[in-house]
Protein backbone atom coordinates (compact mmCIF):
# COMPACT_ATOMS: atom_id res chain seq x y z
CA UNK A 1 0.00 0.00 0.00
CA UNK A 2 1.47 3.31 -1.09
CA UNK A 3 1.87 6.15 1.41
CA UNK A 4 1.93 8.85 -1.28
CA UNK A 5 -0.64 10.09 -3.76
CA UNK A 6 0.64 11.81 -6.88
CA UNK A 7 -1.35 13.53 -9.60
CA UNK A 8 0.26 15.23 -12.57
CA UNK A 9 -1.40 17.68 -14.94
CA UNK A 10 0.51 17.17 -18.17
CA UNK A 11 -1.01 20.36 -19.64
CA UNK A 12 0.26 22.65 -16.89
CA UNK A 13 3.34 20.68 -15.85
CA UNK A 14 2.30 20.70 -12.17
CA UNK A 15 2.49 17.57 -10.00
CA UNK A 16 0.72 17.44 -6.63
CA UNK A 17 2.31 15.03 -4.15
CA UNK A 18 0.27 14.18 -1.04
CA UNK A 19 1.63 12.47 2.07
CA UNK A 20 -1.19 9.98 2.51
CA UNK A 21 -1.24 8.55 6.02
CA UNK A 22 -3.92 10.75 7.63
CA UNK A 23 -4.73 8.19 10.35
CA UNK A 24 -1.11 8.58 11.50
CA UNK A 25 -1.09 12.37 10.98
CA UNK A 26 1.01 11.73 7.87
CA UNK A 27 3.92 10.56 10.00
CA UNK A 28 6.84 9.37 7.91
CA UNK A 29 7.58 5.66 8.10
CA UNK A 30 10.33 3.80 6.29
CA UNK A 31 8.05 2.94 3.39
CA UNK A 32 7.29 6.63 2.84
CA UNK A 33 11.01 7.43 3.04
CA UNK A 34 11.68 5.02 0.19
CA UNK A 35 8.73 6.32 -1.85
CA UNK A 36 9.73 9.96 -1.47
CA UNK A 37 13.34 9.29 -2.44
CA UNK A 38 12.23 7.32 -5.49
CA UNK A 39 9.68 9.95 -6.51
CA UNK A 40 12.15 12.85 -6.42
CA UNK A 41 14.57 10.77 -8.50
CA UNK A 42 11.78 9.99 -10.98
CA UNK A 43 10.87 13.66 -11.32
CA UNK A 44 14.47 14.48 -12.26
CA UNK A 45 13.95 12.55 -15.52
CA UNK A 46 10.30 13.46 -16.15
CA UNK A 47 10.24 16.60 -18.29
CA UNK A 48 6.45 16.74 -18.12
CA UNK A 49 6.78 17.72 -14.43
CA UNK A 50 8.06 21.28 -14.14
CA UNK A 51 6.84 22.28 -10.66
CA UNK A 52 5.78 20.19 -7.63
CA UNK A 53 3.25 21.00 -4.89
CA UNK A 54 3.75 18.98 -1.70
CA UNK A 55 0.99 18.62 0.91
CA UNK A 56 -0.50 16.27 3.50
CA UNK A 57 -3.79 14.35 3.43
CA UNK A 58 -6.62 15.37 5.76
CA UNK A 59 -6.97 18.59 7.71
CA UNK A 60 -5.19 17.65 10.94
CA UNK A 61 -1.57 17.64 9.84
CA UNK A 62 0.85 18.23 7.02
CA UNK A 63 3.13 15.77 8.82
CA UNK A 64 4.20 15.07 12.38
CA UNK A 65 7.63 13.82 11.33
CA UNK A 66 9.14 10.41 11.84
CA UNK A 67 6.65 7.72 12.81
CA UNK A 68 7.43 6.78 16.42
CA UNK A 69 6.78 3.12 15.60
CA UNK A 70 9.56 3.02 13.02
CA UNK A 71 12.45 0.90 14.31
CA UNK A 72 15.81 2.28 13.22
CA UNK A 73 18.90 0.47 14.56
CA UNK A 74 21.81 2.78 15.36
CA UNK A 75 25.59 2.27 15.39
CA UNK A 76 27.13 2.45 18.86
CA UNK A 77 29.25 5.51 18.08
CA UNK A 78 28.59 9.23 18.58
CA UNK A 79 30.19 9.87 15.20
CA UNK A 80 27.78 7.74 13.19
CA UNK A 81 24.03 8.11 12.89
CA UNK A 82 21.48 6.43 10.66
CA UNK A 83 18.78 9.03 10.03
CA UNK A 84 16.43 7.94 7.23
CA UNK A 85 14.91 11.40 6.94
CA UNK A 86 18.07 12.97 5.50
CA UNK A 87 17.12 11.43 2.14
CA UNK A 88 13.46 12.50 1.93
CA UNK A 89 13.88 16.06 0.63
CA UNK A 90 13.91 17.02 -3.04
CA UNK A 91 17.23 18.86 -2.82
CA UNK A 92 18.87 15.85 -1.14
CA UNK A 93 17.86 13.90 -4.25
CA UNK A 94 19.30 16.52 -6.59
CA UNK A 95 15.92 17.73 -7.84
CA UNK A 96 16.28 21.38 -8.89
CA UNK A 97 12.69 21.86 -9.99
CA UNK A 98 10.61 24.19 -7.80
CA UNK A 99 8.77 22.56 -4.88
CA UNK A 100 6.02 24.51 -3.12
CA UNK A 101 4.76 23.17 0.22
CA UNK A 102 1.09 23.60 1.13
CA UNK A 103 0.64 23.16 4.89
CA UNK A 104 -2.60 22.31 6.64
CA UNK A 105 -2.78 21.56 10.36
CA UNK A 106 0.32 20.52 12.26
CA UNK A 107 3.85 20.55 10.86
CA UNK A 108 6.41 19.47 13.39
CA UNK A 109 9.70 17.68 13.99
CA UNK A 110 10.75 15.64 10.99
CA UNK A 111 8.29 17.51 8.75
CA UNK A 112 10.96 20.22 8.64
CA UNK A 113 13.19 17.98 6.55
CA UNK A 114 10.58 18.48 3.83
CA UNK A 115 9.64 22.09 4.53
CA UNK A 116 13.32 22.98 4.82
CA UNK A 117 13.89 21.81 1.25
CA UNK A 118 10.78 23.39 -0.26
CA UNK A 119 11.37 26.59 -2.21
CA UNK A 120 8.55 28.36 -0.43
CA UNK A 121 5.68 27.50 1.89
CA UNK A 122 2.00 28.41 1.75
CA UNK A 123 -0.11 27.64 4.83
CA UNK A 124 -3.80 27.78 5.58
CA UNK A 125 -4.95 29.52 8.73
CA UNK A 126 -5.15 26.24 10.68
CA UNK A 127 -1.44 25.49 10.27
CA UNK A 128 0.81 25.35 13.30
CA UNK A 129 4.55 24.72 13.53
CA UNK A 130 6.50 23.28 16.46
CA UNK A 131 9.51 21.14 17.30
CA UNK A 132 8.98 18.57 20.09
CA UNK A 133 12.55 17.24 20.35
CA UNK A 134 13.76 18.88 23.56
CA UNK A 135 10.56 17.98 25.42
CA UNK A 136 11.25 14.33 24.69
CA UNK A 137 14.93 14.41 25.61
CA UNK A 138 16.13 14.61 22.01
CA UNK A 139 18.42 17.00 20.17
CA UNK A 140 16.90 19.12 17.41
CA UNK A 141 19.79 19.28 14.96
CA UNK A 142 18.80 18.73 11.34
CA UNK A 143 15.46 20.44 11.90
CA UNK A 144 17.02 23.50 13.52
CA UNK A 145 19.69 23.85 10.83
CA UNK A 146 17.14 23.61 8.03
CA UNK A 147 14.76 26.11 9.63
CA UNK A 148 17.57 28.54 10.46
CA UNK A 149 18.13 28.88 6.71
CA UNK A 150 14.66 30.35 6.21
CA UNK A 151 13.56 32.07 9.44
CA UNK A 152 15.23 34.44 11.95
CA UNK A 153 17.61 32.76 14.37
CA UNK A 154 15.69 33.84 17.47
CA UNK A 155 12.41 32.44 16.16
CA UNK A 156 13.98 29.10 15.28
CA UNK A 157 15.75 28.96 18.65
CA UNK A 158 12.48 29.68 20.48
CA UNK A 159 10.64 26.96 18.56
CA UNK A 160 13.39 24.39 19.11
CA UNK A 161 13.86 25.14 22.80
CA UNK A 162 10.18 25.55 23.79
CA UNK A 163 9.36 22.06 22.49
CA UNK A 164 5.72 21.04 22.88
CA UNK A 165 4.89 23.98 25.16
CA UNK A 166 4.34 26.35 22.26
CA UNK A 167 3.19 26.29 18.66
CA UNK A 168 3.83 28.93 16.03
CA UNK A 169 0.63 29.96 14.27
CA UNK A 170 0.37 30.36 10.50
CA UNK A 171 0.10 34.11 10.98
CA UNK A 172 3.27 34.27 13.08
CA UNK A 173 5.05 32.03 10.57
CA UNK A 174 4.08 34.53 7.87
CA UNK A 175 5.30 37.46 9.96
CA UNK A 176 8.77 35.93 10.40
CA UNK A 177 9.11 34.75 6.80
CA UNK A 178 8.79 31.00 7.28
CA UNK A 179 5.54 31.12 5.29
CA UNK A 180 5.03 33.30 2.20
CA UNK A 181 1.20 33.30 2.20
CA UNK A 182 -1.62 32.42 4.59
CA UNK A 183 -4.91 31.25 3.08
CA UNK A 184 -8.36 30.48 4.40
CA UNK A 185 -8.92 26.99 5.79
CA UNK A 186 -8.50 24.32 3.14
CA UNK A 187 -7.25 26.67 0.43
CA UNK A 188 -3.47 26.29 0.72
CA UNK A 189 -3.21 23.62 -1.98
CA UNK A 190 -5.24 25.69 -4.43
CA UNK A 191 -3.05 28.73 -3.79
CA UNK A 192 0.10 26.63 -4.20
CA UNK A 193 -1.16 25.13 -7.46
CA UNK A 194 -1.90 28.59 -8.86
CA UNK A 195 1.66 29.68 -8.09
CA UNK A 196 2.99 26.44 -9.54
CA UNK A 197 1.05 26.88 -12.78
CA UNK A 198 2.49 30.34 -13.27
CA UNK A 199 6.05 29.16 -12.64
CA UNK A 200 5.56 26.09 -14.84
CA UNK A 201 4.55 28.33 -17.76
CA UNK A 202 8.06 29.83 -17.86
CA UNK A 203 11.05 28.26 -19.69
CA UNK A 204 12.17 25.31 -17.51
CA UNK A 205 15.91 25.89 -17.89
CA UNK A 206 15.57 29.45 -16.60
CA UNK A 207 13.42 28.34 -13.67
CA UNK A 208 15.68 25.46 -12.68
CA UNK A 209 18.80 27.61 -12.98
CA UNK A 210 17.19 30.14 -10.67
CA UNK A 211 16.32 27.45 -8.13
CA UNK A 212 19.91 26.22 -8.21
CA UNK A 213 21.26 29.75 -7.80
CA UNK A 214 18.99 30.45 -4.83
CA UNK A 215 20.12 27.32 -3.02
CA UNK A 216 23.78 27.85 -3.81
CA UNK A 217 23.57 31.14 -1.90
CA UNK A 218 23.23 29.27 1.39
CA UNK A 219 24.68 25.87 0.52
CA UNK A 220 28.13 26.21 2.10
CA UNK A 221 26.79 27.30 5.48
CA UNK A 222 24.04 24.70 5.41
CA UNK A 223 26.38 21.84 4.49
CA UNK A 224 28.87 22.75 7.21
CA UNK A 225 26.14 23.02 9.84
CA UNK A 226 24.47 19.74 8.89
CA UNK A 227 27.81 17.93 9.15
CA UNK A 228 27.72 18.58 12.91
CA UNK A 229 24.26 17.10 13.37
CA UNK A 230 24.96 13.35 13.66
CA UNK A 231 27.29 13.41 16.66
CA UNK A 232 25.32 16.21 18.39
CA UNK A 233 22.27 13.95 18.23
CA UNK A 234 24.02 10.80 19.40
CA UNK A 235 25.78 12.64 22.25
CA UNK A 236 22.74 14.60 23.41
CA UNK A 237 19.76 12.27 22.99
CA UNK A 238 18.24 10.51 25.96
CA UNK A 239 18.17 6.69 25.65
CA UNK A 240 15.31 5.53 23.39
CA UNK A 241 13.30 3.98 26.26
CA UNK A 242 13.39 7.32 28.09
CA UNK A 243 12.30 9.16 24.97
CA UNK A 244 9.30 6.88 24.62
CA UNK A 245 8.36 7.38 28.27
CA UNK A 246 8.44 11.15 27.88
CA UNK A 247 6.48 10.97 24.65
CA UNK A 248 3.66 8.91 26.12
CA UNK A 249 3.32 10.48 29.56
CA UNK A 250 3.72 14.24 29.10
CA UNK A 251 0.39 16.00 28.61
CA UNK A 252 -0.05 17.76 25.25
CA UNK A 253 -0.47 21.19 26.85
CA UNK A 254 0.63 24.05 24.63
CA UNK A 255 -0.13 27.58 23.66
CA UNK A 256 -0.17 29.03 20.16
CA UNK A 257 1.34 32.38 19.33
UniProtKB/TrEMBL annotation:
<dbReference type="InterPro" id="IPR029045">
    <property type="entry name" value="ClpP/crotonase-like_dom_sf"/>
</dbReference>
<feature type="region of interest" description="Disordered">
    <location>
        <begin position="236"/>
        <end position="257"/>
    </location>
</feature>
<protein>
    <submittedName>
        <fullName>Enoyl-CoA hydratase/isomerase family protein</fullName>
    </submittedName>
</protein>
<dbReference type="InterPro" id="IPR001753">
    <property type="entry name" value="Enoyl-CoA_hydra/iso"/>
</dbReference>
<dbReference type="Pfam" id="PF00378">
    <property type="entry name" value="ECH_1"/>
</dbReference>
<feature type="compositionally biased region" description="Polar residues">
    <location>
        <begin position="236"/>
        <end position="251"/>
    </location>
</feature>
